[in-house]
Amino acid sequence: MVNLILFGPPGSGKGTQAKKLVEKYGLLHISTGDLFRYEMGNDTPLGKKAKSFIEKGELVPDEVTIGMLRNKVEANPEVPGYIFDGFPRTIAQSQVLDELMNEKNTSISTLLMLEVPDVEIINRILERGKTSGRADDLDENIIQNRIDVYKNETTPVFDYYEAQQKADKIDGVGSIEEIFDRLSTKVEERM
């Protein structure tokens, strides 16, 4: 079983690359954003809990997010592995994810971090903003803040998996195919 954590700042191409990895390796892409939308949209008990925090402008507690992840993993036991996108964001979340994988008699294979210079990210998101309809994709200050939050939150998670020799940095600049080839090489090394 191959279990990947796909990491990178906003605009680094995680979504595009996750789709390609799913096609090539048959993995299940688990995006926390998609999980929240699904659970809240279907008014599930976890969705209701998440909504109650979001409506107050609060962060959804880890146990709610983990519950959603657990449901998704348990609903798809036949897949050859998972791509976790947007999770974990903290050491505590990393430890809980490791526990969940251990319960399933598997483990995280690798964390793949797409490295893209800030100026490139800003340009990509500003370009995306022309069609995304998201106001935050058109404001350089907001984009820079999102990059800074990503760096501050995720560096410890990278270090956590690097200490287990399960973290790789991937050059996230180039054509979609070039970046995908780099990712595929690392995935195959970890299989």
Summarize the structure.
The protein has 191 residues and is an alpha/beta fold. The protein contains 8 helices and 5 strands, in the order βαβαααβαβααβα. It has a domain at 2-27 and 79-116 and 154-190: P-loop containing nucleotide triphosphate hydrolases (Rossmann fold).
| Rg over C-alpha atoms, rounded to the nearest angstrom | 17 Å
Q: Kindly report the CATH topology of one domain.
A: Rossmann fold
Major pleated sheet: 5 strands, parallel
Number of strands: 5
Q: What is the rounded distance between the termini?
A: 8 Å
Spatial order of the strands in the main sheet? 2-3-1-4-5
* CATH class designation of one domain: Alpha Beta
In what range is the share of β-strand residues? Answer: 5-15%
Helical fraction: 55-70%
Summarize the helix and strand pattern as letters: EHEHHHEHEHHEH
Q: In the CATH hierarchy, what is the superfamily of one domain?
A: P-loop containing nucleotide triphosphate hydrolases
Structural classification: alpha/beta
Quaternary state reads single chain
Nearest-integer average pLDDT: 93
